[in-house]
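User: Predict structure, ligand magnesium ion.
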Amino acid sequence: MTDTTKTTGAPQGAQGTPVIPLPAGAARILIAVGAVATMASTMLAWTWTSEFPGDLTVTGYPAGLQLLTLTGGILTLLYALTLWNVRGLRWLNPARANGPVFLMALAAFAVTWYTVLAITIELGGLANLEPGGYVAAVASLLPVLGALALPRPGDTWKSYFAKADDIPAAHEVPAWAERIIITLCLALGLIVFTYGIGTPDDEYGETFSGFMLLVLFATWAVFAAGLTDRFSSLNARHKGFATSMAFLAAAVFPFTQSEDHNANIGVNILIFATVALGLNIVVGLTGLLDLGYVAFLGVGAYAAALVSGSEYSRFSGTQLPFWGAVLVGMAASLIFGVLIGAPTLRLRGDYLAIVTLGFGEIFRIAVNNLDGSSGPDITNGPNGIANIPDLEILGFNLGEPHVIAGFTLGRFANYFLLMLVFTAIVVLVFTRAADSRIGRSWVAIREDETAATAMGINGFRVKLVAFALGAALAGLAGTVSAHVSYSVVPTPYQFAGAAPPNSAFLLAAVVLGGMGTVSGPLLGASLLYLIPEKLSFLKNYELLAFGIALILLMRFRPEGIIANRRRQLEFHETGQLDIPEQQSLPEGTIGATKATKAGA
Amino acid sequence: MTNTVLEASGVTMRFGGLTAVRSVDLTVSEGEIVGLIGPNGAGKTTFFNCLTGLYIPTEGKVSYKGSVLPPKPHLVTQAGMARTFQNIRLFANMTVLENVLVGRHTRTKEGLWSALLRGPGFKKAEAASEERAMELLEFIGLAHKRDHLARSLPYGEQRKLEIARALASEPGLLLLDEPTAGMNPQETRATEELVFAIRDKGIAVLVIEHDMRFIFNLCDRVAVLVQGEKLVEGTSDVVQGDERVIAAYLGTPFEGAPEDAALQEVEAAEVHAAEGSSEGNDQ
Ligand SMILES: Nc1ncnc2c1ncn2[C@@H]1O[C@H](COP(=O)(O)OP(=O)(O)OP(=O)(O)O)[C@@H](O)[C@H]1O
Ligand SMILES: [Mg+2]
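Assistant: Predicted complex:
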């Protein structure tokens, strides 16, 4: 689609000229008709065999990927109606811009064409398409063409993808209404997220891919319409309320899952996200590049496993209560963090990255070898510590299903709720630490270490606190992770691998999500966990795909999905002043200046 | 006699074979504004770095109010000496207010625990810090921009903010490295007033500057540094009339001195060369 726009939209400076010449009225009608036809096409059979995931053979009601197309069609229709300024829908597209309509049409188009192409390719040929498939393909193309026939938002084809100009301020509504809006948005988020986790594990992840396409373009459309900005300003106004509702929504999640498998994914995401948030203190706030962070998760997990009472543990006789295990895990990670941090935090920049990378690997290799044959027997070598017993908290065995208010919570659902408490603690620690004297000194160090020390900050000490705090939080998550996965083995705690958690993925979760924010790493971690999980057929290409995705993201949105208010300005400010370049030079050259003089 | 605030004796700084500062003595007394001038590359900034612990001087010692300073920048600030930088070094992506709050670091002591527990002590300390920071922003006239990012301020305001940040550490001596570089004449005048106002608060000031009008208006005493050595020290009049100073700045006149136009050309070329080398060298 971009190709068409690129070539046809080539004449520059043609702001407002549509890519496809059509009267504006006709264009709108084309979009609406296309959207309705797309919705209707989902009632038809798209293929003749139920071999394709989701069984798209039935006429009469949508199934599998057709449901996603239907959603896309409805959204396109709603956005098309905003062009007629239909009452009650204006809020969807406050600027009445064409860009969001185009993007929404693209969302429906993407998921439909993806499905049709997947049917053709997987089943081997166009013959496998029923007429319904053709109808869907043509119908979903119409709104895109219609949107291209609307006046172009800006003077390049890129303007279709950019945020609309002149978005009017939101109507004043009473505070309780704002809270309801927040609640509804979070409920919607929960539904989308739950749907994503619950997509069936098709061989080639078809449903999940379609889901991601729809979500990607629809989110983009909503962003371009200016709704995400409105939502974040609502959130800023009701911070405490929004946070508690977000946690409430997360707590509702296990109740919506009949299968414990999905809760398992959920708890793993939470663990991963919590560790990423801990890393965000080190990387996002303090600006220390730590490439071996996953080792701290490992230390916490191993420490908890050793005192869990597992028969494979070196100390199989001792079984500490859970709070004891948590303290031991955190303390062990903290000590490990200080041991690594104390010598390395005196280094700057790249050196620190290299040393942490080395230490991370040393941890994994060491636990792999501490099996009694090539060293003291502590970790049981590559076999790890298995049979970690389930936790029992206040007489409540987390290993057994429990019925709460008519809902059965399985083992992983129990752990999910436990982990959610820890995630909440880490979020609290992060936000409180960031907004304080120590948090400001972290950011100051990140911004300019020399100036920070000249302002009286003991750089080494402050960095060590950040490093140790990050380590302890990862250790905290590790203690739960040991119990969730029944056993701990050395392999997951590596620098890079095809599946999280590993140091590279953790770092990517922070950078992708948005450094220095709370929700960024949480979102980044969710994506980076779900995508490899659902698209497991990519196997060997996963890291490649992951690399390409990161490069694209850094090219087009360097501040991450969720932008820190500071970083947003940093990357997209125009016409700002020329501030002297601040390079990180080795300590010795500070102040070597030979600048031009003003009044010399 | 008034009390000595800063006493530097025999400060020498060598970089390999280059002696950037050679056995310089300097004292600053309470309530004084002292100027430090000298041609480009004379070692003024290097001397500042030695005073503030960014460099460990090869020889010599620096004492503040009678006690010898350890060569650690944060301890120097803790002791009561704060500085600004020749090439503005604000925390570019922090707000104006946050920049000044960072300056309060040595005068507050809430650690990680109190930040996490948020007891009444923490809240009181934060409120007090903010109040103090806002007073300083009022003082330099940037209170209305408290929530702007430092990087978005115009050049002159960035220089002022850097001064406010330094003042936030409640120093007894403020070191300013070319506070008016890049400013227009009005801004320079305003900075002059600002420095007087700072002195009136009881803070001694040591200032490096190339703007001679500014220096001679402002300073009670001026020291001239040439090729790392202190050439002359005295009141404005003494320094202004000293032939060696003029020679150091303009070079020794020789037979068939170049005409004005040629001189300007040479100057322009020098400025150009300095610009080129500054890219690699700037802090
Ligand atoms: N870290 C360093 N390593 C090597 N040489 C240095 C270093 N710092 C400064 N110098 C040298 O010391 C000399 C004095 O430099 P300095 O920056 O102190 O001069 P300055 O008087 O501040 O000049 P300007 O007026 O241009 O700011 C210069 O020749 C410079 O190149
Ligand atoms: Mg200098």
